[in-house]
Amino acid sequence: MNTPALLVEKEGGVATFTLNRPQRRNALNAESWSAILDELRSAEADPSVHVVVIRSDGPVFSAGNDIKESESFATPADAKRYFLDIMVPALEAMARSPLPILAAVQGPAFGGGFELLQFCDVVIAAPEASFQLPETRLGLWATVFVGATHSLGVRRGALELALTAEPYSAAEAAAGGFITRVAAPGALDVEVRALAEGLLGKGRDALARSKRYANRSLISLGLVAVRDALEEHCNETIFSVDGVEGVAAFIEKREPVFADRARTAGAGE
Fold first, then answer.
1. pLDDT, tens digit (0-9, with 9 covering 90-100), for 12-60
2. What is the CATH number of the domain that holds 73?
3. If we measure between CA atoms, which residue out of 79, 213, 95, 54 comes closest to residue 143?
4. Which of 180, 182, 202, 267 is paired with 127 by a 20 to 30 Å CA distance?
5. Among all residues, which ones are annotated catalytic?
6. Segment holding 170, helix H or strand E
7. What is the rounded distance in angstroms from the CA atom of residue 72 to the CA atom of residue 145?
8. Is residue 266 part of a domain?
9. Which of 46, 43, 170, 195 is CA-nearest to residue 117?
10. What is the pTM of this model?
């Protein structure tokens, strides 16, 4: 029997979504994104649910989009089906959802896992959590993140993360506005639960309207930029010389040799 990529539990007005691929470091795949979308719609239709919490099982919050999924893309159309038809609808649903979405981050969040958090409303991280966009090391780029950047008001820090591929600690991510705050040591689950329960006593309609206006720029501008960035990424980057080399190097556990490095090395011989 296949283990579901997402576990859902509803209790006391809170729907908890748990990323459930710890053996793959909770890497996100088509099943993960589809389940997030479907379960969010189900929670919205349930009048007893007032808050959604996203968490994950295991030491890593999420390793990002599963590189094995990318391996299966034979054409730009394949890549677009995954990113534009499966992943983006889930992110858009999160941005538009009337339900507050909280995230509990217990460990590293890489790439698409970090991007997922930018579409949550409140993100609380354990002190040992970290945040990283490793895409440029693979000859790729953090499309969703840079597309949403101007809507999040964090351009400078976002560029540092996206360009350098170096990690931010939880404290640095909070200072840069990429997460809401850092929990006290050992208190992540307690603090997230307390926040969720505190929202239960608030007006459901008032929460929805507050979120809708707070996310207006993300919805009207950010998601448009995200779609444009992904379109370009699928058409021009994934199947480029550097994109193919970067993914191959990652799978083979070696350093990539990008086209500019190869040319430089050849010129020096």
1. 999 999 999 999 999 999 999 999 999 999 999 999 999 999 999 999 9
2. 3.90.226.10
3. 79
4. 202
5. 115, 135
6. helix 170-175
7. 23
8. no
9. 170
10. 0.94
